[in-house]
Amino acid sequence: MAMNPQSPSAVIMVRPHKFSPNPQTAADNKFQKVHADIPQVQVNQHAFEQVTQVAEQLKKHGIRVHLFEDEGIETPDSVFPNNWFSTHAGGHIAIYPMFAPNRRKERRQDIIEMLKSEYRVQDVVDYSGLEYDNIFLEGTGAMVLDHLERVAYAAKSNRTDSIALERFCSHFNFEPMVFAASDSTGSAIYHTNVLMCIGTDFVMAGFDMMTDEARRQEIIARFEDSGRQVISLSETQVNQFCGNALELQGNQGRLLAISQTAFDALSKNQIQQLEQSVSLLPLDVSILELAGGSVRCMLAGVHLSRR
Questions:
Q1: Neighbouring C-beta atoms of residue 118, cutoff 10 Å
Q2: Does pTM top 0.85 for this prediction?
Q3: Which of 72, 94, 153, 200 would bridge 6 by S-S if both were Cys, CB 3.0 to 4.6 A apart?
Q4: Cα separation of 247 and 244, whole Å?
């Protein structure tokens, strides 16, 4: 089967043994929640089980899952590997500069070595040194990539520096499309991938949270010109992680990996629109969503050719 540039058929996941929301990211991640009423032992166990179940569900649908373990306590957000690296057709890997100091410890050589041994890798471009200059670009959290049209959509935030974005786009042949987005309290959206999901034939995003009207219309026009169905999400739906989904290529066609929380927040009409091009796969990651990310954040797509 030919590779679909937008939907990978393999993903990398990290299974945490001692999961907890990250205190170093709480200040600018309004999606994080406190779990005072659940004992930490139970949180650890639920998180471990939910990652295990997601991996099994994906495998059942023909997705190749590379599952890595994290048994430490220094990397509370390790379950979200999509922020520290990304892979690209033609054999390229990017490694990113991370905003929170404890997230920098998530970068793992064993994951990069596995990719080199199982896939064709030409080069690894490492931007992590930009951290020393307080320049951050948190991977496919900071950018939502349109692999078909070669556009990198990026909401302005602490975690998305325009210098790093320009550098990534010139290296990897994307056009940067930067915009401002905030919630109704005026807080900036911390990661673009909680706001926007780009599939092969659709895009769903919290367009109304983009604060510049002209820019919003320009972005919508770009998606319409690419032939995609444009599905608008409300702020409430964005807060339920509806934008934090990932289209994958399964053995029975394309599917949309989305959390059960998000699925329950979609309208019947939106589900029908999505089902015109993907099968929906709701996954229970409720305990992991306490950390302010959902299914998309948990899956680092592999856009490389197998050896």
A1: 15
A2: yes
A3: 200
A4: 10
Q: Which amino acid is at 257?
A: A
Residue from 213, 215, 192 nearest 146 by CA: 192
In the numeric block, the tokens 């520096």 are attached to: 161
Task: Please report the sign of the dihedral spanned by the C-alpha atoms of residue 292, residue 35, residue 44, residue 40.
Answer: positive
pLDDT at 31: 44
User: Residue 134 and residue 102: Cα distance in Å, rounded?
Assistant: 14
Contacts of 95 (CB under 8 A, 6+ apart): 84, 85, 107, 112, 124, 125, 126, 127, 128
Chain mean position to CA 301: 9
DSSP string over 53-76: HHHHHHHHTT-EEEEEEE--SS-T
pLDDT tens column, 251-295:
999 999 999 999 999 999 999 999 999 999 999 999 999 887 899
Is residue 4 classed exposed, middle or buried when 0-12, 13-18 and 19+ CB atoms within 10 A define those classes? middle
CA gap 246, 255 in Å, rounded:
8
Answer for the pair 98, 141: CB distance below 8 angstroms, yes or no: no
Q: Kindly state the tokens that stand for 60.
A: 């059942």
Domains of the chain are 10-301 (3.75.10.10)
The SS3 of residue 199 is coil
Using CB atoms within 10 Å of the CB of residue 180, give its burial: 0 to 12 exposed, 13 to 18 middle, 19+ buried. Answer: middle
pLDDT tens digits, one per residue of 173-207: 999 999 999 999 999 998 999 999 999 999 999 99
The count of residues in the chain is 307
Residue type, 101: P
